[in-house]
Fold this protein.
Amino acid sequence: MSTLSIIGTILAATIATSVQINKLMIDFNATFKADQSQTTNVSVIGNLGDISPEDKLRQAEIAFDAEEYQTMLNIYSYGDTESSAIRNNNYGYAYANGLYVEPNLEIAELYFDKAIALEFEPGYANKFRAIMCQRDFERAAALLVEWNSLPNHAILQEYFEVNVTNVVGITLEDFCHNFSVQEQIDVLQSLKEDEYLGYTVQYNALSNTVIGGYYHTYELTNMDTYNNTDSRIITEYIYKHYKSGIVGGDLLNIFARC
């Protein structure tokens, strides 16, 4: 084969390889953009920059319903939605529930505070739930008193009646105006669900630990020793499992809509 033929063959192969690489890059970029946009199931109206803040909020609701949380957060990132109580409540909701972002109750509370500054009741409900999940009962009690001062606090009234008044007879009025801080804390502590899971036998002492997000507290109930080939000590424990949920918590986890 002549030198010219060899060069021609190499050149043809190089061009073919270049075409293949370019095609792969085009395919990759298309796939990457599709993955990034996450809008395959969401009908977004044209250029979001050209629509009103109210329409952006509605598009964010469509994204939420389609579980396209990245799209939802992208819509909320537009500057003309930042003063919306709905937008700030729902931004906090995303952080509280880990929707496309790492769960972070502290960041969630910052957004709920922006909604609360506008006396938006779902913001109070969501912040109360976030505080209760952190077991900060004194701060939760103070928020309830503030929440109760709103002209409209229907969510709080319903939650309190179902989970407190109808159970132990304490009214929201008594809680907010007649109870000491410690009495308020005692009421809120009772809203955390406790579940006893029975006895377990272990060879070694157990310590407090966190498993799957739940706090496990082990209490020694009795101990018995006997001699066997291993000379091991059998210790019997009963443990109390604190759930992370709050009684009636569905009323306190609100994605707000227009």
